[in-house]
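Narrative of activities, Objective 1.

The group set out to show that a structural description can be obtained from nothing but a protein's sequence at a throughput compatible with the screening campaign. Below is one input-output pair from the validation batch, recorded exactly as produced.
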Amino acid sequence: MAVRPIRLFGDPVLRSPCDPVRIGAPGNPGLVQDLLDTVQVPGRAGVAANQIGVSLRAFSWLVDDSLGYVLNPVLAEVRGEPEPVEEGCLSVPGLGFPRLRHPWARVTGVDLDGEPVEIAGEGLLAQALQHECDHLDGHLYIEGLEPEVKREAMRQIRASDWY
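Output recorded for this entry:
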C-alpha cells in the first residue's frame, strides 16, 4: 500500500495505550501492508502502528533479513539481566541514547487470520520486540533512560529542528 509518515515525539497518539486489533476487520490487511512497507525503509528495525498514526496493537519488524508483523502482541517473556544498548527511535529522529534492555525477548500475538504468532530472539531483535511493545503501551524509549541521560535527551529533543 504505502510507506507512511512517522509520527514524532509530542504527538498524542504516541502517548496512549493502543487498542486491540479486531481480527477480521476490513482495514487490517491495509494496516499490515503499510507497516511492512514502512519498516522496509533502510535503517529501520521496527514500526509500531501508533507511529504511523493508528492506535491499534500491531507492529512490523525487519531484523537480519527477517521481515514480519504481529497483531495484538504481548511481551510474553524476557531473559537475562538488562544490559545497556544504544537505542534510537524513528519518533525521536537523529538521536540515540544508552538504554537498559533484556538480551532475549519473546512476543506472542496473532496474524491476520487469528493464527498464533511467536517471535523470539536476542540482540537487536530482542531490543526491537521490547521497544515496539513499549510503543503500543504508550511509552517512548526515553522514559526508560537513566535520569541524567533523560535530561540530556530532553535537552537535545527541544533543540532539534523537528521539535
